[in-house]
Structure formats: C-alpha cells, structure tokens
Amino acid sequence: MRTVRTAPGRDRPATYSLQLAPGELPVMTWQLEKHGWNATSSFEEHAHDFPGVAYFHASGGRLRTGRRVWPIEAGDLFVVAPGDMMGHIAPDDLAEVQGWGVFFTADALGPDVPGAQLAWRTHPLLFPFVRGGAIGALRLRVPEPDRPEWIARMRAMHNELAQRRDGYREAVLAHLVLLLVDVSRLAADVVGDLRENSEPLLADVFEVIEKRYPEPLSLRDVAAAVNISPGHLTSTVRRRTGRTVQEWITERRMVQARRLLAATGLPIGDIAREVGFADPGYFTRTFTKAHGTTPTQWRQAGTVKGP
Known about the structure:
CATH architecture of the largest domain: Sandwich
Mean pLDDT: 81
Number of strands: 10
Helix content: 25-40%
CATH superfamily of the largest domain: Regulatory protein AraC
Largest sheet: 5 strands, antiparallel
CATH class of the largest domain: Mainly Beta
Distance between the termini: 46 Å
Shape: globular
C-alpha cells in the first residue's frame, strides 16, 4: 500500500489518499521514531482522505494540527479524521518522536460500513472520526496503565502486515477492531477532552455544559454563567472549535443518550428527560438528525442490558 498526493488548490491543502494493490488489506501501520527521520525530513501542510490514529508512547517532539502546536507527551493519542488539517512539520518537530500510526479505509471493517464519511456517525467504531469542519486532529490521552497494551497491539499489527503469515488478515482486522473500540471509549466524552486541552474561556464554557446539560440550557444561560455577551461567546466558540455553543450542548446530550441507549433498558422518554429534553418527540428528531437513525434503531444495533 502507498499514499498518493493530490496537489493543493486555492482553498485546500495537499491531500493524501491510500492506494491499494489488488487484494491488499486496507490497513497501514507506520512506526514513528526519532531514528526514522533524517535531518532534512519535512512535511507540508496537508490532509488525508482516510482515517487514522497516531499514538506516542514517549514524550518529545511536536505535532501541528489545525491551529494548534502540541508538545507531544507520553500517552498522547491523536484521532485523525478525513479532512483534518495537519500543519507543516519541520525536522525539529520530529527529532524526538516515538510512537505508532495506524491508518485504514472504512471498508476494512466490512462490506456493510457506509461509504460516505458523514454516515459513519451511525457506526460505533467510526463515530470518533466524524467531526464538523477541518479544524485539526482530536487529542486524547491513554491512561498510563493501558499504555503497554497499546504499544503491544500496534506492534503486533505491524508484524502481521510485514510477515503475512497464514491468517494475517484475520489477525490484523481483529487488532484493528480492538484498537477502535479503545479509541471509541476514550473519545466518548469529546467535550471533556476539549475542556482539558483548551483555553480558559472554553474550559469555563464546557464546565457549564458538563454540569447543566441535563437541565434546560441555552446560549444565553451559558453566556451569563461565564460573564460575556451571547454574541461574543458565539463567535469565540465557533472560531476556536468550529461549532456553536448550542451544537456543543446537543453533542454532550447525545453522548449521554448513546450511553443510556447502549447500557440500559430505560424507555426512550425517560432517556430524553435524563439528557435535558422535556419533549421525547423533539429528542427523537434531534437524535435522528445527528445520527441518521432513531434512538430505537441505535439501541437495536447494539447489545442492550437491563437498567
């Protein structure tokens, strides 16, 4: 497998695509280590049209994504969605990096996976790769006790792809599914991750949303809580995150709704009230618009446990 570059245009960066040989497995691993770069290695600003993750098991180096420059810390996990803007990477940025990248195409997960990226929001393992706007990769943190397992899984996937012994396809796909399950669990609370990593104003905004999303909550309520005007809050949050305050309130409610649908047998009306919707019908319409499927259909697609 190799990557193919499309030249940048007036309003888009260079874009890389995966090109497969006939019958080739659509999964690629890339060892990210300081000895793998030469002194002149440099990457232009670019995007991918395929999803992937980059995991770093040691501190050192920098990653430029969207409008941010991240000093890399041990346990950093970057979830790269198609279209996410990756900044220019200079040789010094790569000097100390140690980690792994895993890239794939959605059809690796089976023939029933939707082909359109926006439809991935209905797939539990691809949902973390659906975001509004090319604003940069999502940064998550792998808990310290889990880090050896992440390295072992990525190394095992890499070895299977390199050696291609009997059964390697099944082994690689099994490792990929387990990896994406872990990514999904870490990304379940996107608001929490932004609250941890963003500027003080955004931290305050997401703190208000986290505490009050089960209640009636509007843009004006959030603006009053952080002591700035609704107009200024709207422009600031949209500029920094690519979403409005109301979209973040809805996203937090949807995160909890998905958890309750998957892990409990609560009636849909009860779930609606638990996540801040007084009208179950409005909750169903909002959920369906966000996920392309009704709450009942989402529940039926997974394993439901008792309340």
